[in-house]
Amino acid sequence: MVLVGEEGCQPTRPFSRDSLPRLAPGTGERSLGFCLAGLFWRAPAARRPEIEPPLDAPFALLDRPDAPPDPTREHAQPAAASNVRSVAPPPPGTAPAAGDLPAPPAVLIAGAPQLFNVMKYQATVSGKRKPAPEAGGGNGIDALPDEVLQHVLSFLPAAEAVQTCVLARRWRSLWKSMPVLRITSEGRTLNRRGVRRLNKFVNHLLLLRDRSAPLHTCEIDLCTFRSQDVPQVNLWIRHALLCQAQTLTVHLSHDNNSFELEDLPLVSPHLTRLELCNVVLNDHILNFSSCPALEELRIESCYTQADMIMSQSLKRLTILDCIFYLTIRARISAPGLVALELTELWGRTPLLESMPSLVTGSIKLADCDDCCGKEDGGSCFSDNDTCEICGASNDGSGDCVILNGLSEAKSLELTAEPSVYIFKRDLIWCPTFSKLKTLLLGEWCMDANLGALMCLLQHTPVLEMLTIQLCQSPSSLMGTEVSYKSTGQPFASNTLKVLEIKCEKIDERVHKILTFLSTNGIHIDQINIQQSVGSSEA
After folding, report:
1. Stated pTM of the model
2. At CA 333, angle to CA 253 and CA 240, rounded to 5?
3. Per-residue model confidence as pLDDT tens digits over 370-387
4. Which one-letter DSSP state was computed for residue 353?
5. Which residues in 16-39 are b (16+ Cβ under 10 Å) and which e?
6. Rounded distance, CA 336 to CA 314, Å?
């Protein structure tokens, strides 16, 4: 094994090929195992090469069958490349002839030739090293300041970024100050040995990183791991927060969606954006009282076992394809929220507390489990009836689950499958939407007497644009007639200017909507009926 093409290079401790971590078939030189061998080496001072890996690098370079030949070792075969040749050293006291500079040592770096092919080897003259180029000096990539190079490195996975430390002396410590850390498994399934290698590499990476350098983003993106050992994700999260990370992303494979994050609150005055995917979330980790700068939270494909999601500073909240408790209704308390998106939630729909700053809201419900068995008979829709399953307070008291928290919004999208009735039940206690100007409704509002549509129009006094999206067959028009909350007047909205109906075809539902509006004296300046792709627009 040769680390750098220079004879006389010796490892600091004995090693053999059998002592190195084995690579999984097909992983190649990009394997994280290269970064975990832990072989630190040095060359004798008299014949030390110009480029050497720093002693604190958290990886070692392994030889491979297609590695370039080393022209400086004894008994080495001539290099195949035309620009690399062996030359005899000049006699002492004489300068080398033009063109007789020694060839650069052969270094194995995955991807380095493609990324840094403009760098030139700095040859030694008269046994002395040439000084490394200063930041901002030299030509090509050497002319860039350290901050720019660190920004470039931040687009690489952490394992590849660390490997650049052998390119030149100037590069030895650049990786320690990268503003972004991308901890990935590079698309590979991790077995037990792979998980251990990953843990060792990342732990060394975090320990050797310059803590005085600001960390903007920490991204943890791991594919499937099949092992009793698991990646130390919880440890890495806490360390990233200690390094004052502003953006934290944790993405695990869907196959590992039972991975549970520590039930401890996150504490960081610097964290502004958090993204969690395919993990299990408990109570305390969703209490962001100790993250006063957090403004954006995205939760996707997670199992949520929390009673409350709470943040005073949060401005944008997105929850996609998540499962909530079946036995208790979670609450979302984010009074500073500006934008909210809830899409395809499973389990019990969370209760929305007051959001006075809300501007846009999008609620798209599929097969949620807000069912008590009484909805078909209509008894669950009665404001005199209590329901422990459908109620907002888990105690059987009647109250809004969703609509009350959305009452300050200026733009809303409310869509659901026809079988989902949580919107209809909320209309019994429907609040007044005093700022709402744009409203999109789904199939759920098309009950037998269009009572849901009438109730919403009565509680939207400044509504300017109404969109009704029809996707199902006309048979879904039939349903239980429900008595919703009435304001005592036919309609509060006298500002409605645009009606837009989106449908697959113009059927009886479209005619019924138009007749309903005309009968109730709602005169609309513009009516647009849009048919789906493949049909003409009316």
Report:
1. 0.71
2. 45
3. 765 555 544 455 544 555
4. -
5. eeeebbebeeeeebbbbbbbbbbb
6. 6
